[in-house]
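Weekly sync, protein design subgroup
Attendees: M.S., D.O., the rotation student, P.L. (late)

Item 1: inverse folding check
M.S. brought a backbone from last month's batch and wanted to see whether the design step gives back something sensible before we order anything. D.O. pointed out we never logged the input encoding, so this time it goes straight into the notes. Structure tokens as presented (280 positions):
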């Protein structure tokens, strides 16, 4: 029986293997897409295993970091090191071949990410989402969207048309001063209720005005998702917290967004839902 750590001295038993559904691996064995960029240290899979030991997670979903552009070799290498307990989310452009997509699938990739939050450093564009969604549908993959709440609302019609399942990163990045009153929450809820979308409870520090250590506004949004859409929620650490100068304590990561949920919901978010989406 697995045990998940929700905080100091608080552990909850789970019947299956808990999954961290959102993290990034950066390994200097693989060069950055931009040769002028110096890759950060201490972000390898070996480093990440320390977090697994702290939290009790076993399965992991490696999300391609922007440092590597569309070169997914580091992500594939990390999946392989996880010996069946790993899956991945790649980044690709429409010129990728069908053979290359099948190779990614064989390596454990289960979706494509479009990180459009900051257009200034985006590897992909909004125009790439729909054509690629059609091509990956037959593989059983999904589209993972890292967009702001305003972007989600603005492009709701496009998102509704997508031919494959959708995963919204970081609770849809709703503006903290509006939270679930923002129109994007209704867009996400509509898709979830049609069994077409999933939501990652992750990145509390990306969706807050109140700030650490409690991130009260972001956690209120997480509780709303848990109340309204528990059947389609995932949890992710967002390790190694690349955007944050002051990184959250590993022991607090799970309890931050899942604390206060009943045990059966924690089991669903950490075990059942990721097993269903990623095919563990």
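Designed sequence read out in the meeting:
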């Amino acid at each position: 029986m697995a045990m998940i750590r929700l905080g100091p001295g608080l552990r909850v038993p789970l019947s299956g293997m808990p999954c961290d559904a959102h993290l990034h691996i950066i390994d200097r064995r693989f060069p950055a897409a931009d040769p002028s960029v110096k890759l950060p240290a201490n972000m390898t899979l070996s480093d990440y295993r320390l977090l697994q030991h702290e939290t009790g997670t076993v399965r992991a979903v490696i999300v391609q970091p922007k440092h590597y552009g569309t070169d997914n070799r580091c992500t594939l290498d990390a999946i392989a090191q996880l010996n069946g307990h790993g899956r991945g989310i790649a980044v690709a452009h429409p010129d990728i071949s069908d053979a290359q997509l099948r190779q990614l699938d064989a390596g454990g990739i289960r979706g494509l990410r479009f990180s459009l939050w900051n257009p200034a450093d985006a590897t992909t564009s909004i125009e790439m989402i729909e054509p690629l969604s059609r091509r990956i549908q037959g593989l059983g993959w999904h589209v993972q969207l890292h967009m702001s709440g305003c972007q989600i609302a603005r492009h709701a019609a496009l998102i509704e048309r997508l031919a494959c399942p959708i995963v919204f990163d970081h609770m849809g990045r709703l503006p903290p001063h509006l939270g679930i009153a923002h129109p994007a929450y209704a867009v996400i809820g509509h898709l979830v209720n049609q069994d077409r979308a999933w939501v990652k409870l992750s990145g509390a520090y990306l969706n807050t005005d109140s700030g650490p250590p409690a991130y009260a506004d972001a956690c209120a949004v997480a509780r709303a998702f848990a109340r309204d859409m528990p059947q389609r929620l995932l949890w992710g650490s967002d390790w190694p917290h690349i955007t944050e100068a002051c990184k959250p304590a590993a022991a607090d990561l799970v309890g931050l967004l899942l604390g206060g949920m009943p045990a059966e919901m924690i089991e669903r978010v950490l075990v059942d839902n990721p097993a269903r989406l990623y095919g563990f």
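Discussion: The longest helix spans residues 263-278. The longest strand covers residues 109-115.
Action: P.L. to compare against the previous round before Friday.
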